[in-house]
Amino acid sequence: MNAARPADASGVDVAGCLDGLTDPAVRDLAWLLFSADLLRAQPPRAPLAEPWADRVGARATAQWLVRLDGDPTPLWAVLEASRPTRLGRYAEILLGWFLEHGPAPRLIAANVPLRRAGRTLGECDFLIETPDGRRLHWELAVKCYLHTGDSRETLADFVGPNLRDRFDRKFTHLLDHQLRLSEREEFVSLGLPGPWLAQMFVKGLLFYRAGSLAQTLANDPPALAPGHARGWWVTRSEWPAFAAQQVADGWSVLPRLAWLATRRIAAGTLSRKSAGGSAEDNVTHLATSSHTADRLDVPDAVRTNAAGSVFTAENAAPDAGAERAQRSGSFADRMVTAAPVDPETLLARLPRPGEPAMVAAFLGDCANGYVECSRGFIVPDDWPAQALAFARE
Where is this region: Disordered (predicted)? Predict the structure, then answer.
């Protein structure tokens, strides 16, 4: 088994695979499986997780995703029952669904806690068995870090948007603690026969200050995968000039649970109200324009209102997705985004102006909907100095 990231070894057109999917959760699952890894393999301590053994397995997965996209109701039922609020937990549910229901290695257990004297030492994310009998311990992480602009070629320069997390610390914790859990005596005492091979499943995006991307390409830390997904960031004061130079028909804030696959907005899901920076002002379900205009992302069978009754074509109001999402209080609410607006309006309607916000640029499609073409962060003007200080702690 080679160490190439799954997207390289799969032989599957990742962009084409995503373009053919319509349901946002299925698109997110496809992104999780096929997108580029953030890190290179670190043999022998940290090889990369491989969801399939060869191109045949990759193609089988792509075909399975198409079938799931045709009827995503069972997946949405699990999401509605769990209602994750953290991006990492959402990703865990998606990957767990693939391992349980897809053409995947056999899932033995998930979120297995290890304890000593009543104290939890950690949890093994996924324990799986491949068709050839190998037993694997997967540790999953989905991260978004912003590069501080320094040129030290170190993971410490990649920081979380809220300056509570740093890539070097996460990397060390992953290698020295999380991936070592299946080697501990407490794991052996569970009676799960091995041997176990720990692998890392690390996906996400890294964001570089606008205008510095070309320079940064030559300064990546050695641990980073060269093909990792990239975005940009700008300060509030830099935003007007930056946005004016971009080719975009509109901009939207992306809620945290919409940080995985590129987003699509169908014409039929756009509210009649003027779009803003929050779902309360106006929400639009993420969908694809290839469906009919009245098709919503979330299957009706799992979309309920506050009283618990099911929304169906018979009892729903004629005015589509925004009203349903506002009333439902469901997991789907956390995945909706406002319709694209101009850069000035977006900046004025940022939900928390004192904090970084992920935003996306959209282009209109041939069916009067929108497709995401770029994403990045708008950060407060004092954020760069704070980020640089945090990186050097």
Answer: 271-295
Burial class of 56 by CB neighbour count within 10 A (0 to 12, 13 to 18, 19+): exposed
The residue among 10, 3, 32 whose CA lies nearest residue 257 is 32
Single-letter code of the amino acid located at 219: N
Which residues on adjacent β-strands are paired with residue 345? none
Which residues lie closer than 8 Å to 236 by C-beta, 6 or more apart?
Answer: 347, 353, 378, 379, 380, 381
Dmax over CA atoms of the chain, in Å, equals 62
| Phi, then psi, of 357 in degrees rounded to 5 | -135, 135
Tokens 């794991």 belong to which residue?
187
> Which token pair is 376?
């990045």
CA–CA separation, 15 vs 35, rounded Å? 9
CA quadruple 191, 195, 200, 201: dihedral, nearest 10: -70
Residue 124 carries which DSSP code? E
Q: What is the DSSP letter of 302?
A: G
CA atoms within 13 A on the CB side of 275: 23
* pLDDT per residue rounded down to tens, the chain (393 residues): 333 344 444 556 656 666 789 899 999 999 999 999 999 999 988 999 999 988 899 999 999 999 999 999 999 999 999 999 999 999 999 999 999 999 989 999 999 999 998 899 999 999 999 999 999 999 999 999 999 987 778 999 999 999 999 999 999 999 999 999 999 999 999 999 989 999 999 999 999 999 876 556 667 899 999 899 999 999 999 999 999 999 999 999 999 999 999 998 877 666 433 344 433 333 333 233 222 222 223 333 333 222 222 222 222 222 233 333 433 467 888 888 789 999 999 999 998 989 999 999 999 888 778 999 999 999 999 999 999 999 999
**CB-based contact 144:205 (threshold 8 Å):** yes
- Where do the domains of the chain lie? 239-384
The Cβ of residue 357 has, within 10 Å, a number of other Cβ atoms equal to 20
- The token pair at 1 is 């088994």
How far is the C-alpha of 132 from the C-alpha of 201, rounded, in Å? Answer: 20
Contact 242, 264 (CB under 8 A): no
Closest listed residue to residue 162, CA positions, set 256, 81, 238 = 256
